[in-house]
Amino acid sequence: MARVLVIEDEPAIALILREVLSEVGHEVFTATNGATGLTLIRKHPGPEIVLMDLFIPGISGRTIVESLRKDSRLKDIPVVVITESMPGTKQFPPEGSYQACIYKPFDLDQVVKVVNSFFAAA
Amino acid sequence: MFVEKDVAQPGGYLRSPRWIAFVESMAQSLQASLTLLLPEGTPYLKAPRECPACHFSLSGLAPVDLKGKAGEGNALEADTVVLPLLDGLFMAVHDCRSKLQLGTALPLRERAVMAQSLLNSFGATLMDSLDSRRSAVELTALRQANRIIVSLFQGDGKAVDRALDLVLSSLIILYDGQTSWVEYGEKNRPALQVKGDRDLLNLYFHGLTDTPAAVVEAQAQNISLRMGVLGPGRPVQSEAVLGQMANEVLIVLGIERLFRLLEGKMRQVLGSVNSALLLIDRNQKIYFANNAAQQLLMSPILTLIGSGAETVQGPWSSILLEATANYVHGEKDLLVKGDDARLVDWKVHPLKENQILMGWLVIIEDRTDYYKWQEACRRSERFAVTSSMIGALAHELRNPLAAARGLLQLVGRRQDPKQAAGYLDLITKELDRVTVLLNEFLLIGKPAKITPEPTDIRQFLSELLPLLESEALAAGVDFRAELAEVPPSLIDSGQLTQVILNLVRNAVESVGENGQIQITLRHSGKDILLEVMDNGPGLAPEAVEKLFEPFFTTKATGTGLGLPISRAIINNHGGEISASNLQEGGALFRISLPAFPQGGAKVTSIDVLAVLSDEETRCYCEQSLRSVGYRTVAVPSLAEAQFPKDCYQPEIIILDQKNCINKGSGEKICLDWPQSRIMVLGEPSGNSPNGRIEFLRPPLDCVNLIERIHSFLGRP
Q: Is the peptide bond before B537 cis (omega within 30 degrees of 0)?
């Protein structure tokens, strides 16, 4: 049971992620753009994990990750990148600043597995 | 050794060794087998004697057979030519069948005729000289022989040898000699040709024999030679004769050298050239064609040469038919080649000698591949589908596909049918999105089939305004339009509507309530400018670059394809679209379109524009005026020549009554061509606005017409 923030502008995908994660007991918040996402991250209590699409309107996914890592309070929040692109392209945050990467189209079970893996030894 | 026997009776020369030797060398030079026959048909002399391959039997042939068939060319065997000679003699000629002798370029009949003429003249002079011993007359005959041999030149190296052989034989005959020789050459091409006893010649060269010799040296240009005869006899005037023979040899060698040079140059210039070349004489006959012409016109060179120019039809044909004396050229014209058509560039150069037209040089280049490539490039530019655009499309497609997939999985996990149905609904929506994306993307890639028509854009926009206004008003946006008069343009109205709607909708969205949008239409030079401006936030600097890239969007909804498609449409129309920020804030989208007629048709100034509906009158008028040098264009009617007033600027316009039949059309014509003098072929009708129309009494008398034109324009 963890607080999960999903930053995704595609409503259908945001819905899918929310459904499948709340099914297994997580508390899911969603944001459809970078600004809202950042606000939600900084709010107290913030998320324990962030699932983020890189291609969001406004502030880019990469920028969010970078500002996250610079913040002492937030830098340890695991970030899972959900995307269509390949790592190494310029939209990606630098290697090491994100913890996992899921490609679209994804498998629901895979998503659950990845998220849970951060909370396994609870 | 030939011993000359004086034979008193006529025909006695037939036994003369000179005669026999002459016939022998004739046969060798012409590479033919000669058989001389007496009037009754009996063969009495065959040359060349040594040739084993040439056997030919006339025994048993009755005289009447021979006489009847002589001169027809196919008398005795299929490949034999029989011709009459002096004194009732006959001569049968066929190609030497020896495999050592390769065929010459000249047909047998021509060689036979040559042999006939040579033998006749030599025979005549021999008879003469036997009576009077005038060797100078023989020399004339031999000189003639030389000239004929020279004319056998086909650039064939062996021809030189044969000519020299004949000369050397003649020397032996003339001098009653044993051996003759010539040493000749340019600086680096020495050669020695010998006739007769080589061993004796070697002895002579080494000074080991005292056989008398007559020797001469001669030189011309770069060629020098030494020629001589060894033998017992030494007739009077030997030096003079020898000298003259030496000159003949120099001529032969000189011609051979020139021919070598010319051939080399000709091959260089004409053979390897990729352009097809035709030389046409003033009687419209083709007298030269090169290999490229053979290929392009699909007709062998030998067929082309000598044919009339009308047998090869092409875009230049009418130029030749008109016998124009000017350089004319055309580009990207169609030439029919077999079942296909090629795109060619062509030029017709008149060839003049002292101002007289002697013929034409037609140069044609097949540029089909180039034009097709050019077209393909242009097309692909228009489409502007790059791999990055396809990457962007793929990228865009992943989201709806991922959503559909995820939703399907969710459906599998839900028991509640209502929820499942909800998900299925969403899946359908996502798949529809995919379809829309693909369709819009394909619009950029497909050659947008535009059906352009000449349109007054001002009018077109005025009709569109109500729709635009209503959309703006519905969003609370103030809408204004300023439309000036512009020249017509070729546009597809459906597609242009799409573009303008797109721009206006974008502006409405970005400007928000209480914002302002303005459309202006104006023209600058040959371009028509259509601008959509708003007073919204304007464009972000990085957006200005990327706006027209597919899938770039700053909006939450929308495919991001509207502007790329608009650009594709405008490009297809030959125009351009661009975006920028206004100084006072807000965005400006500018479309420029070319006015019609476009590009190619420049305004040409000419002397006379004749608008005559009757074809004969029209041709008569055009040709007469052109022949005296006026630049004339003749059209059947003003409607047919598209927008002639934009293409031509004539000094004088001639019209027939048919083209002025409407009342007021005369006025219109005066307005359309304010600088031109108008002449109407017909009776005055009383409508002569400001006296600018003159009348010519029909029927058209070109002499009279030309005089009138002279008086207005002066002589051309």
A: no
